[in-house]
């Protein structure tokens, strides 16, 4: 990925979305050539010279101090995820060549993590890596995301953008794909020299017009909690709350769990899915489901 281009597009798209009124600035004149703030207005609010801000927006974050980045984040009304992304971009600009190596890929899980997944019996639980591959799941997690796990190498990004079943499975497909790309953009900011992640972005950009459009927006978000609406092929509509947890001892791995509000139709449907799964998934002699629930092990 072109780092200077990433910086340039991120800062310019953030600047263009803020109106003078939102920034608390007087709007002089009726004709503005830019949809949002001018560079000199951002520089004024950030407390830096116009020349210096222009240098930053042209993609050169080298030497930018934390205080300057904080001021810039406030001027551009960046949220927590966007601010972290800005700092990630600056960290890359100032990194030595030795520090630019991508982190080791996480494609497998430790046995203790699999035991933890298996111990969660009343809620779907899954683990993905930083390439959006699902590397492990408990039985109910595989059942919940059955259309995705039907693929040889389950990957949430490829499924969402390349599988024609995705818009039917995700009730809010447009919203879900926006959030997914914004999460991927944050991951790319943390690991800009990761060839495998770059290849995934390139593949999706080539094969999906929607992905290409969303990627160009440079939006960034955290994937921590929210509501997911699904249309399950067996139990029908589900509205579930998800919680995502990074695994501190396993960089690059994130566990997601799904629960339903008690007493709701979704709670009943989730219980039905658990019952259906318990009676339809065959077990081996050891009592475990046939086919390891670990992916890539």
Can you walk through the features of this model?
The protein is 48% helix and 11% strand. By secondary structure, the chain is an alpha+beta fold. Strands 2-1-5-4-3 form a 5-stranded antiparallel sheet. Strand 3 and strand 4 form a beta hairpin. It is elongated, with a radius of gyration of 22 Å.
Task: Give a topology summary.
Layout: H1 3-16, H2 20-23, H3 39-46, H4 50-57, H5 66-75, H6 80-94, H7 111-119, E1 125-128, E2 134-137, H8 139-144, H9 146-149, H10 156-162, H11 166-169, H12 173-190, H13 195-207, H14 209-216, E3 225-232, E4 236-246, E5 254-259, H15 265-280
Antiparallel strand pairs: 1-2, 1-5, 3-4, 4-5
Helix pairs in contact: 1-6, 3-4, 3-5, 5-6, 13-14
Helix content: 40-55%
Shape: elongated
Number of separate strands: 5
| Strand line-up of the largest beta sheet | 2-1-5-4-3
Order of helices and strands: HHHHHHHEEHHHHHHHEEEH
**Average of per-residue pLDDT values:** 88
| Rg, Cα atoms, Å | 22 Å
Strand content: 5-15%
User: With helices defined by DSSP (H or I, 4 residues minimum), what is the helix count?
Assistant: 15
Q: Main beta sheet: strand number and arrangement?
A: 5 strands, antiparallel
């Amino acid at each position: 990925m072109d780092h200077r281009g990433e910086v340039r597009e991120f800062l310019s798209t953030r600047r263009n979305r803020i109106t003078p009124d939102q920034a608390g600035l007087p709007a002089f004149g009726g004709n503005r050539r830019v949809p949002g703030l001018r560079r000199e207005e951002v520089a004024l609010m950030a407390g830096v010279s116009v020349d210096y801000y222009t240098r930053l927006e042209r993609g050169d974050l080298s030497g930018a101090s934390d205080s300057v980045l904080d001021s810039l984040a406030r001027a551009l009304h960046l949220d927590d995820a966007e601010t972290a992304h800005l700092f990630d971009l600056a960290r890359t600009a100032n990194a030595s060549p030795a520090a630019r190596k991508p982190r080791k890929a996480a494609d497998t899980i430790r046995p203790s993590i699999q035991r933890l997944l298996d111990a969660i019996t009343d809620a779907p639980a899954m683990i993905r890596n930083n390439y959006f591959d699902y590397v492990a799941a408990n039985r109910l997690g595989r059942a919940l995301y059955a259309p995705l796990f039907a693929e040889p190498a389950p990957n949430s990004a490829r499924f969402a953008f390349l599988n024609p079943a995705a818009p039917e499975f995700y009730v809010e497909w447009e919203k879900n794909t926006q959030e997914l790309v914004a999460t991927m953009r944050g991951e790319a900011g943390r690991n800009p020299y990761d060839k495998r992640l770059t290849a995934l972005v390139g593949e999706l950009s080539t094969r999906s017009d929607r992905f290409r459009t969303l990627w160009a927006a440079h939006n960034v978000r955290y994937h921590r909690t929210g509501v997911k609406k699904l249309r399950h092929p067996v139990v029908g509509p589900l509205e579930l709350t998800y919680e995502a947890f990074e695994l501190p001892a396993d960089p690059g791995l994130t566990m997601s769990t799904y629960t339903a509000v008690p007493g709701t139709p979704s709670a009943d449907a989730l219980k039905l899915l658990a019952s259906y799964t318990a009676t339809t998934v065959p077990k081996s002699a050891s009592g475990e489901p046939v086919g390891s629930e670990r992916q890539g092990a």
